[in-house]
Amino acid sequence: MKKIIIIILSLFLIFLCYSKENRKFPQLKFIVLSDIHYYDKSLGIEGTAFEEYLAGDRKTLIESEEITDKVIENILSSDASFVIICGDMTKDGEKINHQKLSEKLKLITDSGKKVFVINGNHDILNGHSFKYNGDNKERVENVNREDFIKIYNEFGYSSAIEVDPISLSYVTEPVAGVWLLAIDSSMWYKNKLDKEPITDGELRAETLKWIENILIKAKSQNKTLIGMMHHGLLEHYKSNNKYYGQYILNNNEKIAKIFTKYGLNFIFTGHFHAQDITLKKINKDDTIFDIETGSLVSYPNPYRIVSITKNNKMKIESKFISSIKNYPDFSSYSKDFIRNGTIKTVNKKLKRLGLTDNEIDIVSFQIADAYISHLVGDEISPKKLIDTNGVGLWGRILLNFQKDLVEGWYNDLPPHDNFITIDLNSY
Known about the structure:
single chain; about 425 residues; alpha/beta; Purple Acid Phosphatase, chain A, domain 2; seven-stranded mixed beta sheet; 13 helices; 15 strands; about 20% strand
């Protein structure tokens, strides 16, 4: 009887040691990048074909090398021990862009810091891999799964504890006691060269099973878990799924429950190019955070520094690329670039809805400002979301149908997006 009591007490003490309130996270510091969309200028930066591409795009692609060089300079001068990159390494999966970026990332690993990457929807078997020459564009070599692993072998795959046999997902241990689960959420295996590349994200049943097995192993070994993937796990604003569902992982609610069941409460994402953090309470005991980092080549050109301190707190800070070699005031240039590009895109959509040119001039810049507000994070809603003074009755009716999109962009979901400290004892 005495032995039984001792065993029961021992099990009770073990449970206390591993309960969330007593879980101790290792101290560490790392940097988060996303959506680098690296573009080598040898593929062309002049001519009508490239200009037509840029007209439908809102990324400062031409400056991508300078931006990458600047962030690497900042990384090298930091005391972070590793870097994670949440997908969309390249413009559209061009092999030369992957290779050139890999050469840049080697500067980081040569300094002693580690780099861990995962692919995004732009990176694999992308039919939009082109070079541009005058009025023409010509298809260039892209990459498949095996190519990606070979090119980025030093940046996650060579040190992986396990790699999913059918996707690009892997798990590694960047510092002792911490497992980083890099999840391939892209649907590259359904891409066709003559079709539009797929933007949506999903986890195939086999990959989800592989992930669950990794989570079980991590929990049994008392490892701290951090996740990264390209697609968002949670809605980042109300109506996110309604208007831009392709930016949220399919079957996300089920997957979020699986993650939290095994102690994966923090996942770093990208894809929508917004600097936004959101959370979801799965049940009374479990909460998951989706920490999205904006695109390095889109305003406000952000990256994050994440620190886990000795008092068991996660401190998340935002940094921004505000100057590069040829643009000392890069922030202003980048903001004007995305605002003008967004206005052009909005103009086309409003024209299709049937608004007049005058009505479009009244509202398009306001919609662009709402979108940019969401990209920056910690949005502050104006007293009047859209001033429709001068817009006719029919125009107001049409705009009202999509009012919830602008409301979503302006009304930030908790918690704060750019600077936040999270008490890990609570999660």
